């Protein structure tokens, strides 16, 4: 039974026997009842705005070219963002980090100088104590 249509009654439609046989085969192929198959077909044509007499060949090609144009536009936007925003930002960040590295080098030298000064003071105190005989 068709879901949602259990309580509805059946109507008859007059169609040619060759068309009816072809429709029955199609319904079996997609595993739907004849009512649901016909409803799906009608909804498809209404939603897509197509007529059963139209051929989809040119329409599909038109849609495909439209999609390609939109995809190319998106690719161009992403490339522009990368060129004008991402790469300059990365370059600025790298220059900042390089600047920090050069600033750290003198700090290490100063720290070594302080340690050397402390060692020199300690050795002077020891030599003074030795000179005094202590």
Automatic annotation (TrEMBL):
Domain of life: Bacteria
InterPro entries: BfmA-like_N
NCBIfam families in UniProt: mob_BfmA_Nterm (NF041200)
Protein name: BfmA/BtgA family mobilization protein
Species: Aquimarina gracilis
């Amino acid at each position: 039974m068709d879901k949602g249509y259990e309580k509805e009654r059946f109507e008859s439609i007059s169609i040619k026997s060759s068309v009816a046989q072809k429709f029955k085969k199609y319904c079996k192929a997609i595993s739907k009842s004849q009512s649901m198959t016909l409803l799906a077909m009608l909804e498809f044509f209404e939603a897509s705005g197509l007529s059963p007499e139209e051929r989809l060949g040119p329409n599909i090609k038109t849609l495909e070219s439209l999609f390609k144009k939109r995809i190319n536009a998106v690719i161009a936007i992403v490339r522009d963002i990368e060129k004008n925003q991402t790469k300059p930002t990365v370059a600025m960040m790298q220059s900042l980090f390089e600047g920090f590295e050069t600033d750290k080098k003198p700090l290490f030298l100063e720290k070594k100088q302080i340690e050397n000064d402390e060692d020199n003071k300690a050795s002077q105190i020891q030599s003074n104590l030795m000179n005094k005989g202590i």
